[in-house]
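Field reference: sequence -> structure
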Amino acid sequence: MVMTRRDFHAGLAAALAMAAVCLPVAAKEYRSADVHPEDYPTVMAVKFMSDYIKQKTNGKDSIKVYTGNQLGGEKDTIEQTKLGGLDLVRINVAPMNNIVPETMVPTMPFLFRSKEHMRKVLDGPIGDEILKAAEAQGFVGLAFYDSGARSLYTVKKPVKSLADAKGMKIRVQQSDLWVSLLQAMGANATPMPYGEVYTALQQGIIDGQENPLSIIWASRLYEVQKYLSLTGHVYSPVVIMISDAFYNSLPEDLQKIVVEAFEEVRPVARKMVEDQETELVEQLREKGMEVNTVEPEAFQAKMGGVYDDFVKNVGKEAKEFIDRIKEVR
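Structure field:
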């Protein structure tokens, strides 16, 4: 069952009952963006954050979320946030890879043993280091949220083995790391903004794409592709980035509230994704998709070059990052 605003407010009221904060009188509506539709879990999470901020500021401050690519794709909204046109943005970490190389860390294939392992890493010192690295590029990284394990989805034939993936034109996020990842599988990696994927699948420009289950459902991509192959090659985190200039313009009380809002809503956002994932495989079957399992070891064995590229791009700290992550229990 996906959490609603009513559910969220019931818990929020108790949390705020003892919190009274003196804040400036001037009201502000923070501008945020997301490529996903209104009912997508991470969009709902940012709206819950807005509710939290609004209640903590006695109705003075809130977040307005521009959804469904209204302000452009993720690369566009990252740039707008850096330049101050947006105050914050909810994005997958992949479009940040070429801007902040450390953000490649949580997108490495088959790195996390489970979603619990991923969360322990990203909620701890390693995650803090990755977020802090964004400061040099004009961003304040607030928190990592989940978006689910990523799998392959294709139009004409399923991917049950590496041989099936060979030569297929698979859309990837606009990141050198993701190009390297799909090429390692033998596919013809095709970088493309998310907003173009549905039409590209429909017109046969690409043979498939890779994404979490929730994106397939929210964007109705099951209408233009038949096969789902549960590769689970990456546990896909998303990140909330806030403009450094905007954050520093806030008084200290408001800075604290903004940070608290993202931390408070993180478990809510994760639960929404979890609830969806337990249901979506069957729902996609009902929509006509053929669901296939794969042996992940064969795919994982081909990822050596991806890790070599990661070390080359991030530097000597790269291997240390990987070793530290593997040690987290």
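Note: Confidence is low (pLDDT under 50) at residues 13-25.
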